[in-house]
Write a structure and sequence with these properties.
The protein is of the alpha/beta class. It has three domains: about 190 residues, Ribonuclease H-like superfamily/Ribonuclease H (Nucleotidyltransferase, domain 5); about 90 residues, HRDC domain (DNA polymerase, domain 1); about 90 residues, DNA polymerase, domain 1. It is about 45% helix and about 10% strand.
Length: about 400
């Protein structure tokens, strides 16, 4: 289905206009790459890449024991070659010039890679095309790069070295080959996805979604929003909700300060338990589920108790932000019905249902939240407008003779 209002198209970014096809890297008899460990060679490479319309980029990093990702390797492929950059030897900050240029960065499942570049270079790609995200507009649900390669190019990629220690040195030939493969075929996959999206009239949708994802990743770790990532905290009400918001924000800041994963600082269970019990003293804190000896020492205990005490200073949530159980209960039947229709529509369009809209997106739309993703852009055209007709009583959902849900106009 082409974009609804069906000839409507977003303005093409500069990188999209006149994009030329690239050589088929998968046809090379043997994959070749250069490993850069010297700053001078890296700077020469950046000069060479200036003016490239697009590059394929990936990173290898560790973050199992840290808050921030520790980048271990950066892979870049373009029309003229493929290089691996060793960030343990090279200062990556000059990449800022390329990140902020008109060059399109083609990446797969780019979320955490974006965070890597934000941390290493202080900025993110100006133009991004995420192949995993784009594949969702063609019926694939968050495919791995290997699965996408198999569908588009006819072969799978090796997974052998995916979980190796990327921070160890020297890296083995097998590790380097694995890393190189992650970008070697991305530009050809990009070509094929672009052609498929164009044929389906969904290219503008995919471009807009990549831009939205980029902005979302840049702001994802705002401490004041940390409570939203704790499922049980989203259903708390009143004072308990305020305490959960305050303690979750403290946990996020503390984790960043000591560079430890947030759940190593304080578990989700402990955040919710603190919100429910609202301790005001060390003795109270000692009795909270999920609190152990490490939390009762120094800065941690003081920080938790201060966060609890200051929770009352937080502004109340706006109606659009309230996810308490009462508001969800009111709209549950409508959300369930619309969710079934949206899932069916996604199947009919051969799109990833989670990309079209999650249950949370549908809840926000039904509550007429202005910030709902379905209140603007391609989702509004595809889902928002029909659901607005439904909510106003001008349309209804009914079953056709084949057991499918259909949206039909109502005669007033």
């Amino acid at each position: 289905m082409p974009d609804s209002k069906n000839s409507r198209r977003a303005a093409c970014p500069k990188w999209l206009a006149g994009l030329s096809r690239r050589p088929d890297l998968s046809s090379q008899p043997k994959l070749k790459w250069d490993l850069f460990v010297e700053q001078a060679a890296f700077l020469d490479l950046l000069d060479q890449l200036q003016g490239e319309e697009r590059i394929a980029v990936d990173t290898e990093f560790h973050r199992e024991r840290t808050y921030f990702p520790r980048v271990a390797l950066v892979q870049i492929a373009w029309s003229g070659g493929l290089v691996l950059l060793d960030p343990l030897e090279i200062d990556l900050s000059p990449l800022t010039v390329l990140l902020e240029s008109e060059t399109l960065w083609v990446m797969h499942a780019a979320g955490q890679d974006i965070e890597v570049f934000q941390r290493a270079c202080g900025t993110t790609p100006r133009h991004l095309f995420d192949t995993q995200l784009a594949a969702g507009f063609m019926g694939m649900s968050s495919p791995s790069l290997s699965a996408l390669s198999h569908r588009e190019l006819g072969f799978r990629l090796s997974k052998g070295d995916r979980l190796t220690d990327w921070l160890s040195r020297p890296l083995t030939e097998s590790q380097l080959a694995y890393a190189a493969t992650d970008v070697a075929h991305l530009l050809e996959i990009h070509d094929r996805l672009m052609a498929g999206l164009e044929a389906r009239g969904r290219l503008a949708w995919a471009v807009a979604e990549c831009e939205e994802m980029l902005q979302r990743e840049v702001t994802r770790r705002v401490p004041e929003d940390a409570w939203r990532r704790i499922k049980e905290a989203r259903s708390l009400r009143g004072e308990a909700s305020l305490v959960a918001r305050s303690v979750a924000a403290w946990r996020e800041r503390r984790a960043a300060r000591v560079d430890r994963p947030v759940r190593h600082v304080l578990s989700d269970l402990a955040v919710v338990a603190i919100a429910q019990r609202r301790p005001s003293s060390m003795e109270d804190l000692r009795k909270v589920r999920g609190i152990d000896a490490k939390h009762l020492k120094g800065a941690s205990a003081e920080g938790i108790l201060k966060a609890v005490a200051e929770a009352g200073n937080l502004p109340p949530l706006l109606p659009d932000e309230d996810r308490s159980g009462g508001r969800q209960q009111e709209s549950r039947a409508a959300v369930t019905l619309v969710s079934a229709w949206v899932a069916q529509l996604a199947r009919d369009l051969q799109m990833d249902p989670a990309l079209v809209g999650t249950r949370s997106d549908i809840e926000a739309l039904i509550r007429r939240e202005k910030a709902s993703r379905m209140a603007h852009g391609w989702r509004h055209d595809l889902i928002g407008e029909p659901v607005e007709e439904l909510l106003s009583g001008r349309a209804a959902l009914a079953f056709d003779g084949a057991g499918e849900l259909v949206l039909i106009p109502r005669n007033n």
